[in-house]
Structure formats: C-alpha cells, structure tokens
Amino acid sequence: MRRILSIILMGLLLAAPFSVAQAADGNTVSFIPQWAPQSQFAGYYVAYEKGFYRNRGLKVNILKGGPDFPPSELLHSGRADFGTMFLTTAIVKRAKGYQFVNIGQIVQRSALMLVAKKSSGIKNPADINGKKVALWGEEFQIQPRAFFQQHHLNVRILHQGTTMNLFLRGGVEVASAMWYNEYYRIIQAGIDPEELTTFLLSDYGLKFPEDGIYCLESTYKKDPGKCVNFVQASLEGWKYAFAHPDEALDIVMKYVNAAHLPTNRVQQKWMLERMQDIIQPPGTAVPMGCLQEETYNQVARELKNYGLIENIPDFRQFYRDCESAHEK
Hints:
Layout: H1 2-15, E1 28-32, H2 42-49, H3 52-55, E2 59-62, H4 71-76, E3 82-86, H5 87-95, E4 100-105, E5 112-117, E6 132-135, H6 142-150, E7 156-159, H7 165-168, E8 174-178, H8 182-188, E9 196-200, E10 211-216, H9 217-222, H10 224-243, H11 245-258, H12 265-279, H13 293-305, H14 315-318
Parallel strand pairs: 1-2, 1-3, 6-7, 6-8
Antiparallel strand pairs: 3-10, 4-10, 5-8, 5-9
Helix pairs in contact: 2-10, 2-11, 5-13, 10-11, 11-12
C-alpha cells in the first residue's frame, strides 16, 4: 500500500509543475529540471529514490520540466526553489537583472547541435542561410543564435517541441538536437548518420558548459546550508548513478513511465552514458559540481562579443561553491 501511495504521489508531482515552493517546516523544497523525465536528470531522481536528499534533511518535490515550463521563470517567480539551466541562459538572465546564482555546475561540456539532412543541400554553415530552423524556447536559443551571428546567417526560426516530428517530416531543414538525446532519436527513426549533416556547436568555438543547478540569490542568503545540502545530495546521486547504471536506469524508467513518455530503456542507457561523458569528461581535473572562473569568463566574453549581453556579471556574485563547502 505504501508503495502504491508513493507511485501516485510521484505521478501527481510530475503532472503538476506549479507546486508550493516552501512547506511550513521549511525543509520541503521544489526542484524543476529544464526538460521532461529522462537520463539527463538521472542523478536527481537517484538522489530522491535512494534517500540522499532525505539523509540531509530535505523533502524534495521534483516538478515537471519541459519547453513550456522554463526554470528561469519558475525560479524568478518563486514557484521553484532550485532548477537546472544552461550556463549561457543563467549568464544572460543575470545580465538582465535576474538574481540567479549557480550553486553547482554539473555538465562541463556542450552537447547542443544543429542537424540537417544532406538531401536538403546543407553541407556547411553557409548552406543554412535562408532556411527554416527549429529551435526550442528562449532558454535554449542562445548558442544557436550566436552560431547564426558567427556565420552571418539569416534564418526563419520555428518553434521546436519535445519531438523531432517537424524535422523528420520535412517541415524544417534544420533542427536543434542534443547529442545525448534527439540525435540518437533521429537515428532510431531510420535515418543513417551518413545521411545527416551535424553542427556540434562546441566544434565552432561555442564550448559552453550546459546544465548547472541554480537558485535565487535570496534563497542562498536565507539558508546557504540548505543549498549546500541540495547540491551535495545531487552530486551523490550522480556519482551513484554512474557507479550503478542498471539501477539508475530502473529509477529513470520509473519516472519516464509515470510521465507516459515515448522512449525506451535502450535510448535512456545511451543518454546516461553520454551524460557521464559530458559531466566527467575524460582528462578533466574539474571536480563534479565546480564552475571555474576561467570557464565562466570565456563563456561570458563570447556572449558579449555576439551582442547577447552588454555587461559581464561579476563571477563572485554569480557563483557559490557548494561542492566543496563543509557538509552540514
């Protein structure tokens, strides 16, 4: 009976993106990932299911993410306490006055790419000029727009949802994709890699680390210990997921099935493996969860060079080191 109630509760949380952010006891927090349930967020699901958050005194509500529920808006409005965002998104928002702080940089490399069919005549960036390009919402458009400026491209932008149907059916010539997700789904749909032209944006100088954990500056100032506990429990979840991939996939599929998403364990296994590639890149000495000032400044300078921000936010105001903080 207890297990049935747990499953029902999880389904309600996934279905309702606007839960109350704070409970009366002050230990309940809400977390909004920037997309629907999948292995991209395996560490957080594992941390919840294995009791890592609970062990640190936190009761965590995982809200439903996706293109219609941007974490920046939910955080800014107080409808979520913690959320994941791309580093570029957070820098741009901070430059516009949003008081976001990075409390844990999870992904150290970019996996964002643009994909085209060779049959559309696209073989190099110049061929994209004048074409229809599908992009996700504002929070995912910063790198592609920098790429367009870099190559002096004028394109017609169409909205891209959670599927690749628009691209697969020829509605657009170019689509957004993550290396660990949509690219694999295109291949699964029956298109051979040799039939595709891919533009991995990191290959064009846009080497922007992606998913990080964010909260409002006021949230951190009010209770830094709670932020430290959330980040360190999340990191514990990621480390456990990579050390126990089969168990992590069992947990991910529980959330995927509760959300009735069109995916399978094979795809989620691929995604989890690719997430490890970009969270713990081979040869990197950066501890999981850390944002290096040099990396931050490099990304911010590129955003300023492309006219996406006017001023670079102070790194010391932007980043709080919860990874190496003393455990509470």
